[in-house]
Amino acid sequence: MKLNATEILEKTLSLKASDLHLMVGAKPAVRINTALSTLEEFPILMVDDIELVLSQILDQDQRQILEVNKELDFSVSLGNKARFRVNAFYQKGYPSVALRLIPTVIPSLAELNLPDVISQLCELRQGLVLVVGPTGQGKSTTIASMIDRINSTRAEHIVTIEDPIEYVFTNKMSIIEQREMYLDTHSWDIALRSALRQDPNIVFVGEMRDMETISAALQISETGHLVFATLHTNSASQTVERIIASFPESKRSEVRVQLAQVIEVVLSQRLLPS
Q1: Taking the alpha carbons of 172, 118, 164, 201 in that order, is the dihedral positive or negative?
Q2: Each residue of 211-225: b (16+ CB within 10 Å) or e?
Q3: Cα(170)–Cα(194) distance, rounded to whole angstroms?
Q4: Cis ω on the peptide bond leading into residue 200 (within 30° of 0)?
Q5: Fewer CB within 10 Å, N side or C side of the chain?
Q6: In what order do the strands lie in the sheet with 29-32?
Q7: Distance of alpha carbon 173 from alpha carbon 215, whole angstroms
Q8: For the chain, what is the radius of gyration of the CA atoms?
Q9: Are residues 96 and 9 in contact, defined by beta-carbon separation less than 8 angstroms?
Q10: How far is CA 120 from CA 109, 150, 192, 237, 259, in A?
Q11: What residues does each domain of the chain span?
Q12: Boundaries of each Bacterial type II secretion system protein E domain copy (predicted)?
């Protein structure tokens, strides 16, 4: 029985699983309501099974990046039914794949039970808005909800740079252009600097990962644009320290002043069990 990507994604969707794990030497596993279980109807996976799935969901450029970097983030669609965020990587010399279901409907701020002050942030016209927290704490969902709120209430040109694209926006009052790393661009820094030439009102940076990306985001904020971004930090105070520490000692005083001038809010987020 050859493993088929569409078939196993359909199975994941039918089980209402949040995650799917494929690794050599084990049966496919899914996470349902936080509990991990194997799909017993599928065989123990061999290297050829994983390679076959990868050949069905990766293009040639992505495959080359995976072979060089040994890991890759991207997204894959199951027709119009669902989208998955995918992390392909190597372990013990063999390829593995972790997929997470991305909801197709962007939840509203009210559905997320976010405080009213978050709605007020959607009225901003310029500056830097940071949503921070550990991996898997809903940062991208919060920002997607905020962007969709803006999309529904005013006419703006919004450019997103993501790795990978998670929520897919539909133009309402605004025009939204979404760029995915390694599909539409190969550099966070270049993509951000190019964004300034694309006549944006709002820019969403999927993650401020390094000094170059942070510097470009600060520059865009300084030039009268609204920038949303995420950062993997545990608190608001740690966020400021992390940004400043990303720069050489000789530039930190300048960056501290620059950050103070553009930052509007740091929202530190945690998900609580329901």
Answers
A1: positive
A2: bbbbbbbbbbbeeeb
A3: 23
A4: no
A5: C
A6: 35-38, 29-32, 19-22, 94-102, 82-91, 71-78
A7: 30
A8: 20
A9: no
A10: 11, 11, 26, 22, 21
A11: 5-102, 116-268
A12: 6-273
Topology of domain 5-102 in CATH is Beta-Lactamase (3.30.450)
Q: Tell me what pLDDT residue 183 has.
A: 86
Which DSSP string corresponds to the chain?
----HHHHHHHHHHTT-SEEEE-TTS--EEEETTEEEE-TTSPPP-HHHHHHHHHHH--HHHHHHHHHHSEEEEEEEETTTEEEEEEEEEETTEEEEEEEEEPSSPPPTTTTT--HHHHHHTT--SEEEEEE-STTSSHHHHHHHHHHHHHHHS--EEEEEESS--SPP--SSSEEEEEEBTTTBS-HHHHHHHHGGG--SEEEES---SHHHHHHHHHHHHTT-EEEEEE--SSHHHHHHHHHHTS-GGGHHHHHHHHHHHEEEEEE------
Short-list 241, 271, 274, CA closest to 259: 241
Residue 83, both tokens: 């989208």
For domain 116-268, the CATH superfamily is P-loop containing nucleotide triphosphate hydrolases (3.40.50.300)
> What DSSP line would sit under 208-224, residue for residue?
--SHHHHHHHHHHHHTT
The identity of residue 202, as a single letter, is I
Q: What's the confidence (pLDDT) of residue 80?
A: 82
Give the pair of three-digit tokens for residue 173: 């009052």
Tell me which amino acid residue 201 is: N
Q: Determine the pLDDT at residue 162.
A: 94
**Does the CA dihedral 191-194-198-204 come out positive or negative?**
positive
